[in-house]
Write a structure and sequence with these properties.
- The protein is an all-alpha fold and about 55 residues long.
- The protein is about 95% helix and about 0% strand.
- The longest helix is centred in the last third of the chain and has 27 residues, at about 30-55.
- It is rod-shaped, with a radius of gyration of 24 Å.
- The termini are far apart.
């Protein structure tokens, strides 16, 4: 009976881990879009600072 308890715990742990990983991977595309937008903003700011400094 003790083996069944451990087996249940292991299976539940694996299922929980897969659920968490699935959720995290679902977050990648929206975060990627936000990161691209942030990088473009930083580049635009850098270019503006260069123009005003060298202007």
């Amino acid at each position: 009976m003790e083996t069944a308890g451990w087996a249940t715990t292991i299976v539940a742990g694996i299922a929980g881990g897969i659920t968490v990983l699935g959720y995290l991977f679902d977050q990648v595309p929206p975060l990627t879009q936000k990161l691209v937008k942030a990088i473009r903003s930083v580049r635009a700011l850098r270019d503006e600072l260069r123009r005003t400094t060298n202007g």
